[in-house]
Automatic annotation (TrEMBL):
Organism name: Algisphaera agarilytica
Record field: transmembrane: none
GO MF annotation, one: phosphatase activity
EC number of the protein: 3.1.3.3
Protein name: Sigma-B regulation protein RsbU (Phosphoserine phosphatase)
Region (Disordered) residue spans: 1-28
Any Pfam family matching the protein: SpoIIE
Record keywords: Hydrolase
């Protein structure tokens, strides 16, 4: 149906003449200035409710109408609708946060307009006293109704009223439809953006709690171990992560040293990390008193993780576990798919890679073996997760093991203490990354034999 065929439209010569008079009077530049000021002001808004209020105030001043009402049929069936705004209200209601306070009406003139789904101008308006919305209509003699379309349907409608008959110009209706709908989309995007921010803030708060719980599972302070100095660094890529390190006091003054890395990062990895922590602390060894060989500990962890997570989970854990005996300065170790630690001694850097096995949690009955290295005073051992070697620079080049070895070699030759060696390594990783954020969690455990 064309505009001239629509019975709600009213076109008169006086209206067309009125449009020409606006241009002749020089009012167009004034309106352009007002429009620019309005758009500038709206662009600075961050609150949808305030933005709609400011838009309405300026629009009324620019186009001289005396009343307005806004309708919505979201979530309702015909002919029901909500009044979301009205010039009759002395206290505005926020339709996004106070939806339960909005009046819901059934049918009548406003229902016909809203569900009619087309722009309408009525320049000789005479409301029916029996209309359910008569209180909102009774003082007015002309109106302009503009649907706000969403997914092809006019789910909302803005109606401007005037106490004067013939107050609205049909020639301006197309521009008004465009202006209203662009503003409506802007408002909707702002609301969605705010809702997304609130959801992200709530999720971030939950993740912070998860991260705090996870960090509580790590050693609060590093223990004092005879013939060994220690330092540690732990940083997650997100609030929570999958890296894990721990130190266990064992019988006869021995110490268990564990570094592990759950595949992925974030909350799922943190959950598996917590399970790994619980399993490791529950292990008492074959004799029921303490872990014996490190390979037995890894076999125990593997069997329990395989039992907890099925094939659909697609998560695994790399781990390096060692037992240090201060009395003999020996380190017996086993590995499950984890990057081998580096041993610096007398100017040379070697990898503790004599044994290895599959990551934990992939298949049951996986074989793990142990190896022993005789340490001596001055030896430095660096345990790390692949978040260090797989750090990226802006060109997506990885930091790599060669650069890691070069830095550890330099730190060893300078006889850097464990804490200083960690700082040297991290400074080099950060310099390499050139501000690129960590894609993975990063853990370093530095040991020095005394």
């Amino acid at each position: 149906m064309s505009s001239t065929e629509n019975p709600f439209f009213s076109t008169t010569p006086s209206e067309a003449q009125g449009s020409s008079e606006v241009e002749a009077s020089g009012e167009t530049p004034d309106k352009l200035t007002a429009m620019v000021e309005m758009v500038r002001e709206l662009s600075a808004q961050t609150d949808a409710q305030q933005m709609v209020s400011d838009f309405g105030d300026r629009f009324r001043r620019m186009f001289t109408y005396e009343g307005f009402i806004a309708l919505s049929r979201r979530g309702l069936e015909s002919p029901w609708y909500r009044i979301t705004r009205s010039s009759l209200w002395t206290t505005p209601i926020n339709p996004w946060k106070q939806k339960d306070q909005l009046p819901v009406l059934n049918g009548g003139f406003l229902g016909e307009l809203l569900y009619g789904d087309v722009p309408v101008i009525i320049n000789d308006f005479r409301p029916n006293p029996d209309d359910p919305a008569y209180e909102h209509l009774k003082d007015f003699r002309s109106l302009q109704a503009v649907p706000h379309y969403h997914e092809g349907v006019g789910t909302n409608m803005a109606i401007n009223f005037s106490t004067r008959p013939g107050a609205f110009d049909l020639g301006k209706l197309p521009d008004n439809v465009l202006t209203h709908n662009l503003f409506g989309r802007t408002t909707n995007n702002m609301v969605l953006s705010q809702q997304l921010k609130e959801a992200n803030d709530a999720l971030d708060a939950e993740l912070k709690v998860v991260g705090d719980i996870q960090r509580s599972l790590l050693p609060h302070t590093l223990p004092t171990i005879e013939h060994m100095e220690l330092a540690a660094h732990y940083h997650t890529a997100t609030r929570a992560g999958g890296d894990y390190y721990d130190l266990f006091p064992l019988a006869d003054g021995k110490w268990g040293i564990l570094v592990a890395d759950v595949s992925g990062h974030g909350t799922p990895a943190a959950v598996v990390m917590a399970a790994t922590h619980a399993i490791a602390h529950a292990y008492t060894g074959p004799d029921g008193h303490e872990p014996c060989a490190p390979c037995a500990m890894l076999s125990y962890l593997n069997s329990r993780l395989v039992g907890k997570y099925d094939a659909d989970t697609v998560m695994f854990v790399t781990a390096f576990y060692a037992i240090f005996d201060p009395a003999t300065r020996t380190l017996t170790y086993s590995a499950a798919g984890h990057p081998p630690p580096r041993l610096y001694r007398d100017g040379e850097l070697t990898a503790l890679d004599q044994v290895g096995g599959l990551p934990l949690g992939i298949i049951d009955q996986s074989d793990y073996h142990s190896a022993t290295v005789q340490l001596q005073p001055g030896d430095r051992i660096t345990l790390f997760t692949d978040g260090i070697t797989e750090a990226f620079d802006p060109s997506r080049k990885q930091y790599g093991e060669a650069r890691l070895d070069a830095v550890l070699q330099q730190a060893g030759m300078s006889q850097a203490k464990p804490e200083d060696a960690i700082h040297v390594l991290l400074d080099d990783v950060h310099a390499f990354a050139h501000g690129m954020p960590n894609d993975d969690d990063q853990t370093i455990l530095a040991l020095q034999v005394t």
